[in-house]
């Protein structure tokens, strides 16, 4: 009896969370359903959550005219994989040294890293350095280099790997293993959860990359996915211009379904991220928690 | 003689220490070098704030102009933009703190694991979307011709609105969008802290006859204070800049919306990319950096003076 009453008060709370969850999910469903709506129906009834007439023509268009999309996907996948791999490797190396209590320059390196979190030169000096001194504009390298190392992530990694027992490392050291060997054959396998956490942070950041392109990229074949999307959102002509490269026979087949196509492109760009999140959520949460308590 | 001996000995010790740590130091070297080039060198580049930069003359060849760039920054519209930026960010911070803690406390009352998981996943996903995609979603709602909001307005007999040309409605839209995207992160963070509280506290309170309100007030909320304060100190550092993605992408870079959507970071970006004012935008960025450091250090100091454990450093 009393147990029942205890549970009853949770019903309004559940109700609240269900409404809240919908407010996050419905906008996403909306993108999805617009992308599947027939163009004429959009012109007549506007965007709808439940479209009057379904059509896959937007997706046919996106995939039939793949050059631009495939290019952008390629750039994004490349910078995501290479960038994440390098970021994690460099940051883990640094974090490992910082986690060793016997490392004499620990204080200095920590301070050196910490300062970068406090003060920086800002956008303009970095821009001049990248374009006028290093001449990295319109290269893939500029994507890899931007945001390669972050002090914040190094500190999180250090906390994550500091639970490797010192005794294991000491004994390997006494057996004559070099620090490099200890790092590559002992620390890396033992810090898989930490690597997963930071790796996923980096992957999301890279997948969502558009700022670097906005600053440094003018060649269309180097556009990453998100930047291509931004171009499409800000002016529809990006799609329509691209149509001119299609053979006339295709052009005659259908008018550019521009409204649904841009939403279809957004869906195609989010897709992989949405598949990844549910599986790795717990790694993210752990990283977030470590990042926000004193460590 | 003895002095020299001591000096040699000290040098030897230093050398031995270096040898001992050489491998560990080498492991940190790539990160150190990267930050040297891409973080410390640009700090040196702040001299541009005191120059009239010309691409053909380079950094060293360009003419010194003293504080002229700063004078311009102070005399122009920057004051208003800076004020807008601070108001936006303070609103974000305060609202986020209230919303995140309240909803996390509510979630902590639930026991159904599956339901909690579903709620968390659905509120967390916008955190993983880029601002570009969020701008698409906002557009689906506000598009003048086909957007949802205008359809609803029409359905109830009101005039549809040209959302992307009316600057006055954008503070509300941006504040809503910011919270929509970041809320899940904040809630999950606070909830993770609440879950980590030792259940003995609650058991003891229950024995003493405390109800749910009392327990939330005297156990849960005090446990959230450290996380909240650290989030606050971290957030306050960015208070003068503004989230570039939010303010650039969501209003679709529309010039009509600038009066209410321009923040320092978009201003600096535009004066660099659109009008090529290297010196002035560097000066504005320099000012931003200094203000941020001052505010972070001050906040940290205040927090520290209240309770040592709550400060960030």
TrEMBL record, chain A:
Coiled-coil residue windows: none
Protein's membrane topology: Multi-pass membrane protein
Cited CDD domains: TM_PBP2
Localization of this protein: Cell membrane
ABC transmembrane type-1 domain boundaries: 73-280
Entry keyword annotation includes Oxidoreductase: no
Protein name: Carbohydrate ABC transporter permease
Organism of provenance: Bianquea renquensis
From TrEMBL, chain B:
Stored InterPro entries: MetI-like, MetI-like_sf, UgpAE/MalFG_permease
Membrane topology: Multi-pass membrane protein
Limits of the ABC transmembrane type-1 domain: 82-299
Entry keyword Hydrolase: no
GO cellular component: plasma membrane
Transmembrane segments: 24-50, 86-107, 128-149, 169-194, 215-240, 283-303
Subcellular location: Cell membrane
Organism the protein comes from: Bianquea renquensis
PROSITE patterns: ABC_TM1
Name of this protein: Sugar ABC transporter permease
GO biological process terms on file: transmembrane transport
Keywords noted in UniProt: Cell membrane, Membrane, Transmembrane, Transmembrane helix, Transport
Family that this chain belongs to: Belongs to the binding-protein-dependent transport system permease family.
